[in-house]
Amino acid sequence: MSTLRFPPGSLQDIEQAGKEGNTNVESVGATHQLESGVSLSVWWDEPEDQDPENPMNWPSTKKWANILTISVMSFLVPLVSSVVAPAVELILADFHSSSTTFPTFVLSIFVLGFAVGPLILPPLSELYGRVIVYNITGVLFVGFTILCALSHSEAMLLSFRFLSGFAGVATISIGPASIADIMPREKRGKAVSLWAVGTVVGPMVGPIIGGYVAEVLGWRWIFWIISIIAGLVTIVALAILRETYPPVLLERKARRLRKETGNLNYRSRLASHLGLQALLIQSIMRPSKMLLLCPVVTASCVYVCVLYSIIYIFFSTFSIIFQQVYDFSTFDSGLVFIACGIGTLSGLVYLAYFSDKTLEKRARTARMITPEDRLPFLITVPGSLSFSLGIFLYGWGVEKHIHWVVPQVGTAMTGFGYILIFTAVQTYLIDAFENYSASVNGANAALRGLAGALIPLSGLNLYKTLGWGWGNSLLALIAFALAPLLWILAAHGAKIRRIRLCSLKF
């Protein structure tokens, strides 16, 4: 009997290795004998494309139930990040404070949790599974949101806002990995687009809700209502979500076979040879290593984090700008986020039509599909141009006191461009690093969370120094200057991924 050794490459590479015709591996159900003559390697039942335990073979209804649940959770958490924006003046009055940093920091501290959580939660999902991380963090998120409602000082509110962001970021940092577990490449774009729109629209819907609730019921009721909704979503998630990560599922299968047969030699083909402590350290370090050592990850994440920072500068200053320049009320200033949301939804429609078309065409003609197919100029060029032009139009519309519709059109263009770039990068990274999709998305989420938390703190000072027009022109120029990064990756990404640093086993 010949032997088979499986390198720790992508899951699809491993699956392909098992299908090669020159590997005379004797299969007994889900097992075959390895070189040692002792270990029995556990894999999917043959034929692999019909094994119901393989998440790739789940019925469409089950797949989309999981995707929709994760998408709703990923919509709710970013919504909470900005929901208090219109109510900061009421909070300051309640705490008898005149702080000048609190209005932006109460938003930024939540996003700072977005920066810390992705360094820990995605690696844990690659050790223990996606669902257990979703469930535990979902319960914690509800608890911390309730404590925000009970806060009696700025420090207490800021502390629990941070912890809410840390717990809530699980679905944002792990969501694309869950989608990659159950959707083939050529169908992945639409699913990631649906997930991504929630992460972008959520912060735009939040102030609309927050402005109304704060004006009618008071700011504490913002958190009480959010905690009730989050609790219901968590209960639904507990009922619907099922584990999707293949190494965890195969380890469960191996454990079941050991129990049923009494043979302790059954071992998952994807099991690591490292001990728990070494494996935990390796997993926790993986997002940082990918971000620092892999140029394609670094370039992609830097571009997205700059765009994300600009978006959060907008979120933290929209209400203030429209109240000062256009005399909007607390409730009206929450409504200004609608335009950006409409632009984002328009981008989703655009993505739904164009995103998977190239991959589906290649799949029909049996041509090789590469991760770089996720960065077509048809998406990245309109996305980068629309984002920068929208910022420019918004800034000068406000500067010249043109009718409020003009800057709103600018924010709609910005939302349209952002969702195109954000989704293109997300799908590119998970296609390029399928086996570590949670970690690479965690690296992306951590960097943009850190930038989104800290850079908006200087937003008002930027506008005070340069004005609405020139301040936003500077942001537009920075965004446009970084746009060629994705164009370079689209043309030469495959070569860059083959250099030694990107070839390291993380």
UniProtKB/TrEMBL annotation:
<feature type="transmembrane region" description="Helical">
    <location>
        <begin position="469"/>
        <end position="490"/>
    </location>
</feature>
<keyword id="KW-0812">Transmembrane</keyword>
<feature type="transmembrane region" description="Helical">
    <location>
        <begin position="335"/>
        <end position="354"/>
    </location>
</feature>
<dbReference type="InterPro" id="IPR036259">
    <property type="entry name" value="MFS_trans_sf"/>
</dbReference>
<feature type="transmembrane region" description="Helical">
    <location>
        <begin position="445"/>
        <end position="463"/>
    </location>
</feature>
<keyword id="KW-0472">Membrane</keyword>
<feature type="transmembrane region" description="Helical">
    <location>
        <begin position="416"/>
        <end position="433"/>
    </location>
</feature>
<feature type="transmembrane region" description="Helical">
    <location>
        <begin position="158"/>
        <end position="179"/>
    </location>
</feature>
<keyword id="KW-1133">Transmembrane helix</keyword>
<dbReference type="InterPro" id="IPR011701">
    <property type="entry name" value="MFS"/>
</dbReference>
<dbReference type="GO" id="GO:0022857">
    <property type="term" value="F:transmembrane transporter activity"/>
</dbReference>
<feature type="transmembrane region" description="Helical">
    <location>
        <begin position="191"/>
        <end position="209"/>
    </location>
</feature>
<feature type="transmembrane region" description="Helical">
    <location>
        <begin position="64"/>
        <end position="85"/>
    </location>
</feature>
<dbReference type="Pfam" id="PF07690">
    <property type="entry name" value="MFS_1"/>
</dbReference>
<dbReference type="InterPro" id="IPR020846">
    <property type="entry name" value="MFS_dom"/>
</dbReference>
<feature type="transmembrane region" description="Helical">
    <location>
        <begin position="221"/>
        <end position="241"/>
    </location>
</feature>
<protein>
    <recommendedName>
        <fullName>Major facilitator superfamily (MFS) profile domain-containing protein</fullName>
    </recommendedName>
</protein>
<feature type="domain" description="Major facilitator superfamily (MFS) profile">
    <location>
        <begin position="66"/>
        <end position="496"/>
    </location>
</feature>
<feature type="transmembrane region" description="Helical">
    <location>
        <begin position="375"/>
        <end position="396"/>
    </location>
</feature>
<feature type="transmembrane region" description="Helical">
    <location>
        <begin position="290"/>
        <end position="315"/>
    </location>
</feature>
<comment type="similarity">
    <text>Belongs to the major facilitator superfamily.</text>
</comment>
<feature type="transmembrane region" description="Helical">
    <location>
        <begin position="105"/>
        <end position="124"/>
    </location>
</feature>
<keyword id="KW-0325">Glycoprotein</keyword>
<dbReference type="GO" id="GO:0016020">
    <property type="term" value="C:membrane"/>
</dbReference>
<feature type="transmembrane region" description="Helical">
    <location>
        <begin position="131"/>
        <end position="152"/>
    </location>
</feature>
